[in-house]
């Protein structure tokens, strides 16, 4: 809300309530708005706490869903490398030449 909207509300309130009761009405409205704001903030904090608690629960459940890493990655076994296709064709041709030469 801008300045002009607030000014219009103040003028209408002054006309409806009157100049004697306007300060008391403004104070009461301010108290109610403050209470509503505090209540809304409390609800937001409760929701945020529940979401964090749910995230923590999911984090604890997640390792149960994963397979055992020792089975997936065998650290004691030597690493298996994929053969390079260009090297295998060269070595087979070299092996054939050596077999033909009798070496």
Topology:
Layout (H helix, E strand, L loop, with lengths): L2 H15 L4 H44 L3 H4 L12 H17 L2
What does this structure look like?
The protein is mainly α and 103 residues long. It is 78% helix and 0% strand. The longest helix is centred in the middle third of the chain and has 44 residues. The chain is elongated. The chain starts with a helix and ends with a helix. The mean pLDDT is 77.
Short précis:
With 103 residues, the chain is an all-alpha fold.
What profile does the largest beta sheet have?
none
Series of H and E elements: HHHH
- Described by the principal axes of the CA atoms, the overall outline is elongated
Span between termini: 94 Å
Question: Can you tag this structure with a few keywords?
Answer:
elongated; 103 residues; 78% helix; mainly alpha; 0% strand
């Amino acid at each position: 809300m801008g300045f002009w909207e607030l000014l219009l509300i103040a003028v209408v309130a002054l006309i409806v309530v009157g100049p004697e009761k306007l300060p008391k009405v403004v104070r009461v409205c301010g108290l109610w708005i403050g209470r509503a704001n505090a209540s809304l903030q409390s609800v937001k904090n409760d929701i945020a706490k529940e979401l964090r608690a749910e995230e923590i629960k999911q984090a604890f459940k997640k390792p149960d869903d994963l397979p055992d890493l020792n089975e997936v990655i065998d650290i004691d076994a030597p690493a298996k490398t994929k053969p390079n296709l260009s090297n295998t064709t060269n070595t087979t041709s070299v092996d054939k030449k050596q077999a033909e030469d009798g070496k």
